[in-house]
Design a protein that fits this description.
The chain is 46% helix and 11% strand. The chain is an alpha/beta fold. The protein has a six-stranded parallel beta sheet with strand order 1-9-6-4-2-3, covered by helices on one side. Strands 5-8-7 form a three-stranded mixed beta sheet. Helix 3 crosses helix 4. The chain binds nicotinamide-adenine-dinucleotide and zinc ion (ZN). Nicotinamide-adenine-dinucleotide binds next to helix 4, helix 5 and helix 9.
Length: 360
């Protein structure tokens, strides 16, 4: 058995309004007045003075607004790193990502690629990063992905969609302020929240399950079900709980693995650009043969919140497109092994994967 000795986020602050502590948190980390903090902020906040006015800017610090409509790409990370380098003579004191999984992943990747040369695509894989990145902070503004705790940053590159998985990837500091999630539109709240629910189901139903993953996974699952089934839960309690569910769901998969939904969703995203949260939902909706109880609960939650998923997305695809999606999905071997066991190749093949895609 291979034991994972994985790094955890060393510092985390939690609570409504805890974002106000960011200035105090950053102060001792600032190297000097010429070494700025770079705040990467989801552009949904571009006119949100309630948040912008509380970003603790000093000296040469910069705010860079980023649109999260498309998921992060390696070339986007490279351009960002160039822009940051061009902006000041000194290496930044730190990178702070304020947004969802997209912005947090960009912040992690930029922090790593500032000190590791050669472009982000070079580091897509496992443990290819050799040098510690720049100090980096994650501030989630939507809950579910677990990107705030994970040791990966998921990037689409020229050849693959694959994370930079390394011991240097996790944030040095995370700020969990559930108040920041207040403005998330309902559909997106559901999709990203379901990412967490699906993490839990795939972890708890997987062959890699162990007491460590189970302890986090069960708690996160319980909180997701509470949030998405108790219609009368006050908004504040809902925001607090979903933020902690995301954290625990991320911790659960850190010591196990995701499964069929994520494998198929990665293929969908690579070929058609379907985003992670909604892609997972579109796939999971058809996985009753693999996760019967989870899918039943998912459908109930979907109906409760009146969520309509796109239909027929794969109905007009060419054979080449199906082949690409299937290739990407089946290349994620640990996910299939977790879901179906060591002999997973006897259970699933290209034809079966294509049949699943055809339902979407
Ligand atoms: P996201 O960051 O893509 O954001 C989704 C939408 O929500 C965007 O339109 C954004 O503008 C909006 N939004 C975010 N916060 C808001 C707020 N407070 N108010 C109003 N709108 C808000 O969504 P996500 O689901 O958090 O992240 C998806 C990304 O995370 C994907 O790129 C996926 O690959 C990645 N991911 C990473 C990990 C990891 O471990 N690193 C895990 C899962 C997913
Ligand atoms: Zn996920």
């Amino acid at each position: 058995m291979k034991f994972k000795n994985f790094p955890m986020v060393p510092r985390v602050i939690f609570g409504r309004g805890s974002f106000n502590a960011l200035g105090d948190i950053l102060m001792p980390v600032r190297r000097n007045s010429e070494s700025p903090f770079i705040f990467l902020v989801d552009d949904v906040f571009e006119r949100r003075e309630d948040l912008l006015s509380r970003i603790p800017l000093m000296f040469e610090d910069r705010v860079i607004f980023i649109n999260s409509w498309e998921e992060p790409k390696t070339e986007q990370v490279d351009a960002l790193v160039e822009m940051i380098k061009a902006g000041s003579a000194e290496m930044p004191s730190g990178i702070i990502g304020i947004g969802g999984g997209t912005i947090m992943d960009l912040a992690k990747a930029a922090a790593l690629c500032l000190t590791n040369e050669g472009g982000a695509a070079k580091y897509q894989g496992w443990d290819l990063i050799r040098k510690k990145g720049v100090y980096h902070v994650g501030v989630p503004t939507i809950s579910g992905t677990g990107a705030e705790v994970s040791r990966t940053t998921v990037l689409t590159g020229p050849e693959k969609k694959l994370g930079i998985n390394s011991d240097f990837t996790p944030f040095d500091q995370v700020v969990l302020d559930p108040e920041l999630t207040a403005g998330v539109p309902k559909d997106q709240w559901f999709y990203t929240g379901m990412d967490c629910f699906i993490h839990c189901v795939e972890s708890l139903e997987g062959h890699y399950l162990n007491a460590f993953s189970q302890s986090y996974g069960e708690k996160a699952h319980e909180m997701c079900v509470e949030v998405f089934t108790h219609g009368d839960m006050p908004a504040e309690e809902q925001q607090d709980k979903l933020m902690m569910a995301s954290w625990h769901g991320g911790m659960s998969i850190a010591y196990s693995q995701v499964g069929v939904a994520h494998a198929l969703s990665y293929g969908l995203s690579y070929e058609l650009g379907v985003r992670h949260g909604i892609g997972n939902c579109m796939v999971f909706d058809h996985l009753e043969d693999y996760y019967p109880e989870g899918v039943r609960m998912f459908k109930t939650m979907k109906e409760t919140h009146d969520i309509t998923l796109p239909q027929g997305v794969c109905s007009d695809l060419t054979s080449d497109q199906f082949a690409n999606m299937t290739r990407v999905a089946l290349s994620l071997e640990p996910l299939w092994e977790n879901a179906l066991g060591k002999n997973w190749k006897d259970v699933i093949d290209e034809r079966k994967v294509r049949e699943l895609y055809e339902k979407i």
